[in-house]
Amino acid sequence: MTDNPLERLLLTGNEALAHAARKAGIRLGSGYPGTPSTEVLQTLDAIGGKAQWSPNEKVAMEVAIGVAFAGARALVTMKHVGLNVAADPLFTVAETGVDGALVVLVADDPGMASSQNEQDSRRYAVAAGIPLIEPSDSQETYDFFGHAVAISERWGIPVLFRMTTRVSHSKSIVRAGALVCEPPRKPSFRRDIPGRVMIPAYARPAHRRLRQKLEQIAAWNESGPLNKILPGTSETGIVAAGIAMMHAREAAPDAPLFKVGMSHPLPVEAIRSFAAPLKRCVVIEEGDPIMVDTCRAAGLTVEGKPEPFRFGELNVNRVLRILNHDTSPETAPPPGRPPQLCPGCPHRTVFEILHKLDCIVSGDIGCYTLGVLPPFQAMDTCVCMGASIGVGLGLRHALPPEQARRVVSVIGDSTFVHSGITGIAEMLYNPPETGHVVLILDNHTTAMTGLQDHPGTGRTLDGEPAHTLFFEDMLRGMGVPDIQVLDAQADPTVFEKLLTERLQRGTLSVIITRKPCLLAARKQRQADPGG
Amino acid sequence: MMNMAMVTNIVIAGVGGQGVILASDLLSEAAFIAGLDVKKAEVHGMSQRGGSVNSDIRFGQQVWSPMIPDGTADFLLVLEPTQGDPNRHRLSPSGTEIVPAVMDGVQLPHPRTLNVAMLGVLSRHLDLPMDVWTAAMNALIPARILDMNHTAFATGRSIGERTSGHA
For A285-291, what is the mean pLDDT? Predict the structure, then answer.
């Protein structure tokens, strides 16, 4: 269907990206679910592309690097915090470069609709030294993806493709035409030991090569096709990228607008020429002051935004405030109804009992983070994927024994596979004096992001049967001395007794409470009505 | 603001599980089929867990931001009674709020078709012909529940006929 260049589609940014990936001949899309990035790979799979979930973003990135080393085209997807997990391979693949294409989609969540921090991932492009592309709507997402592939292949460099919630999850019209990239090449191994084996002797020239590529890309981007000027009659001009550009055009339709599509390396000289005749030039960017600082460092006279607008999403009214120097207090919107654990959710029993036993709960990322809210209020820390185990161990090491004995690490099944396994290795290697108890809440799905499969569910991204990672077998193999498996919801008193006893015992225990998520079970029945 | 007079802004508000997203997909699809520029924005994520869910739908000649500025919505379609208050600031002073009480005493084919029935009420206030609504429903609703949703939409549309000042 997408062969018709004039086909008009109404797509989310994530869907548009998947359509472009399919069109560009992406060999493999890898990733780990994370709002607002999740639907890219699901759509890619649904429209006939190859996509798979990895245990975490670092592995997904490494798989994508291998695909690109093979001369093929790779897409790897993640949310902003996932890029922290994948940062290690990213920084070095920037230096090795790639033979095929490597496009790294990162979806930021300004305003934190569904995240634990509000980081601005654009800084990663600067830090790693790679190009950064920022689309403003679904059409640009589609078109810019072709440019990302072409740039990645022309310079042999990974490209960071950065979207935000309002680009990823908003729908707008796409004409799915031809992309600028050439047809994909046939994958083939090309040996390049000094280029790909990053021992110091080979890495030193690789770093220089990276900076040379970046210099060339910077020169290309000064007159490149990803940036454009929207004309206007006013004496105040605007420089903007991503969704902020849409808000800015609506807020000030008469202002000339320099719309940045590739924001690293920033086309500073083009912006200098744009700003020169203006009385006033304002950089409108969501999040951190990155473009404005770059412009100022180059000696441009541009305005940024007052500090309050660093926080949360921008919108048309907030852009108007920035343009009008209005820093009067903003009225907070009336609170909506907060999310909660579903009625009948198996996690409910666990958090009721953790609350009742007054445990110190080192928590983790997932639906069960909602255990922090009333009526349970049974979570005391939540930092990042997998942190429950390490943080729980640290608390045990430092707290006085009577408090240490109340510490429990609580982690979900998908999060456990993502980055809990190394925490168990730490627990066995450096056991606290009071022992420790890890609770794995196994509901057999990645529930929070919308019921994705993972290596423990026995199904791949497209629902096909796959090898199942059995947690108890793995834990036994690692040498965990005490592994208990039960359905806490079916036997709350048994669970309460077991947990109480293990906390008092002072040894190392892992308790797996296993009951499929109600929503996942329903989805599975619909997908597999005969089963 | 440019073209604002030509852009129709609609906020749909409800809670997780009510089909806010389907309703907003149907509305944006209808405007899309009618040949208009359309943008639609919402926040997913925690929405499945029973919390508030809103969706902004904008259509017209040209739409820039996908988010409706506060105080400029032409319609606020409320699917759950508690969700009117937290969203009323979205509505323009001359905007119209449509609340679920309009369906009181009305027989629906299934309680879960309230979202589509409410869309039927809204449809009488909009300049979109019936055939684009039918096409949108046919495109987006699974076959096994399509008939009951057509019925629900028609039921809502007939109520909208009685409540709409202009039509």
Answer: 97
**In the numeric block, which tokens belong to residue B139?**
């495109």
Q: What is the pLDDT of residue B166?
A: 44
Are A282 and A408 members of one domain?
Answer: no
Q: Distance (Å, rounded) from C-alpha A374 to C-alpha A369?
A: 12
CATH number, domain B4-163, options 3.10.450.50, 3.40.50.40, 3.40.640.10, 3.40.920.10 = 3.40.920.10
> Are A210 and A358 contained in the same domain?
no
> What is the total count of domains within chain A?
3
pLDDT digits (tens, 9 = 90+) for A297-319: 999 999 999 999 999 999 999 99
Partner A contacted by B41 (CB < 8 A): yes
Residue A80: CATH number of its domain: 3.40.50.970
- The 3-state DSSP class for residue B94 equals strand
**pLDDT above 70 covers what percent of chain A?**
98
Contact partners, residue A531, CB within 8 Å, separation at least 6: A524, A525
pLDDT for A437 beyond 80: yes
- Residue pointed to by tokens 């490149």: A224
A257 shares its domain with A214: no
Whether residue A120 is found in the same domain as residue A237: no
Q: Where are the alpha helices (DSSP H) in chain B?
A: 20-33, 114-123, 130-140, 146-163
Residues of B in contact with A165 (CB under 8 A): 43
Q: Note whether residue A340 is domain-resident.
A: no
pLDDT of amino acid A137: 98
In a domain, A318, yes or no: yes
A519 vs B42: CB contact, 8 Å cut-off?
A: no
**How far apart are alpha carbons B66 and A315 in whole angstroms?**
9
> At A525, is the pLDDT very low, low, confident or very high (cuts 50, 70, 90)?
confident
Closest alpha carbon within chain A to B55: A170
Q: Find the domain containing A492 and state its range.
A: 347-527
Q: Does B142 touch chain A (CB under 8 A)?
A: no
Residue A110 within any structural domain of the chain: yes
Give the number of A-B residue pairs with CB atoms closer than 8 Å: 119
- Please report residues of B whose CB lies closer than 8 A to that of A36: 44-45
Is B67–A316 a contact, with Cβ atoms under 8 angstroms apart?
Answer: yes
Query: Helix-strand-coil percent breakdown of chain B, rounded to 5?
Result: 45, 20, 30
Mean pLDDT, consecutive 10-residue stretches, chain B (167 aa), reads 70 93 97 97 70 94 97 97 95 97 94 96 96 98 97 94 57
Give which of A316, A324, A365, A518 to mutate to test B binding, by max B Cβ within 10 Å: A316
Residue B36, SS3 per DSSP: coil
* Beta pairing partners, A76: A30, A104
Predicted confidence (pLDDT) at residue A180 exceeds the cutoff of 70: yes
Nearest to A335 among B41, B43, B86 (CB): B86
Residue to substitute from B29, B44, B76, B91, interface A, most A β-carbons within 10 A = B44
Ordered by start, the domain boundaries in chain B are 4-163
Q: So what's the pLDDT on residue A524?
A: 79
Clarify whether residues A15 and A155 are in a common domain: yes
Q: Are A130 and A202 within one domain?
A: yes
Does the CB of B28 have a partner CB in chain A at under 8 Å? yes
Q: Which of A419, A351, A361 is nearest to A387 (CA)?
A: A419
Q: What is the ipTM, given to two decimal places?
A: 0.93
How close is the nearest chain B Cα to the Cα of A134, in Å? 16
- Residue A453 sits in the same domain as residue A429: yes
pLDDT tens-digit map of A116-160: 999 999 999 999 999 999 999 999 999 999 999 999 999 999 999
Contact between chains at A36 and B45 (C-beta distance less than 8 A): yes
Please return the burial class of B154, using the count of CB atoms within 10 Å of its CB with bins 0-12, 13-18 and 19+.
middle
